[in-house]
Design a protein that fits this description.
Layout lengths: L1 E4 L8 H14 L4 E5 L5 H5 L9 H6 L9 E3 L2 E4 L8 H4 L4 H9 L9 E5 L6 H9 L2 E7 L2 H20 L5 E10 L4 H16 L4 E7 L2 H8 L4 H4 L4 H12 L8
Parallel strand pairs: 1-5, 1-6, 2-4, 2-5, 6-7, 7-8
Antiparallel strand pairs: 3-4
Length: 252
């Protein structure tokens, strides 16, 4: 399974979710790979990746084979971000503009049960590359009106990618993050977003991710949430998300 985690708005726990999926799968004994296509490199940092080594820019330009770019970390395998990714929109042309990642990872896809692609907070070329490569998309959002504002544009981009570049692509769903069911405001906003998603034919995942300081602490330590604070609320919630997505090792 190849999952893109996407949201063009910052602060939605996009990289946190990508990290949790890969590190959580790894903790379950599943062979997992993270591909960081975001020049901000938050996922690479949190997974203790080496930013000075060749990375995803070299992947999309074909300078290195995908197998030569894989870094092995305690949280799972990683193709690290590259600061040069910021120029990808102007650098990629023709067929490479959308299919560079898909073509580059064909040789390694069968090694992994799970590949998670973290994307930049824009509706640009790297997002299209991820969508053209993936089986499904997860859209993490916080429950506020500003998140809803950009959700329509993102889902429209996904639907265009489905029709033009990748007919097998689907949307696993919107994922509420930093969520507190105890507050009336969060519940009200969640209901509004669910109604909008229903009208746009966009599913909403059953799992919600609660806030917790353990997330930031684990990232600061560059450690998996599942080893740093396995009993924390966010770790429990991300474990439920793995179950909902059926990312399980039946041999466990």
């Amino acid at each position: 399974m190849i999952i893109t985690v996407a949201n063009q708005k910052g602060g939605q726990s996009k990289s946190t979710t990508a990290q949790a999926l890969v590190s959580g799968a790894t903790a379950r004994g599943i062979k997992a790979l993270a591909i960081d296509l975001d020049a901000q490199a938050n996922l690479t940092f949190s997974m203790s990746g080496n930013l000075n080594a060749p990375g995803s820019y070299d992947l999309i330009t074909g300078k290195y084979a995908a197998a030569d770019l894989i870094q092995h970390t305690a949280q799972g395998d990683l193709i690290a971000a590259s600061t040069q990714l910021a120029s990808a929109d102007t650098m990629l042309t023709g067929n490479d503009r959308v299919f560079a990642v898909n073509d580059a990872i064909k040789s390694i896809k069968r090694r992994y049960k799970l590949i998670v692609i973290d994307t930049p907070p824009t509706l640009g070329t790297m997002l299209l590359n991820a969508l053209a490569t993936s089986d499904t998309v997860i859209i993490p959002i916080t429950v506020d009106i500003w998140s809803l504002q950009g959700l329509y544009l993102l889902t429209d981009t996904i639907k265009q990618a489905q029709s033009k570049y990748n007919k097998r692509l689907d949307i696993s769903g919107v994922l509420f993050t930093k969520y507190s069911a105890r507050t009336v405001l969060d519940r009200d906003f969640a209901d509004v977003i669910k109604e909008k998603c229903k009208s746009w034919q966009v599913p909403v995942l059953r799992t919600t991710i609660r806030s917790g300081v353990a997330v930031r602490e684990a990232q600061l330590q560059r450690e998996s949430l599942f080893t740093y604070a396995p009993k924390s609320k966010p770790a429990q919630d991300y474990s439920k998300l793995l179950d909902e997505l059926k990312i399980t090792n039946k041999e466990r």
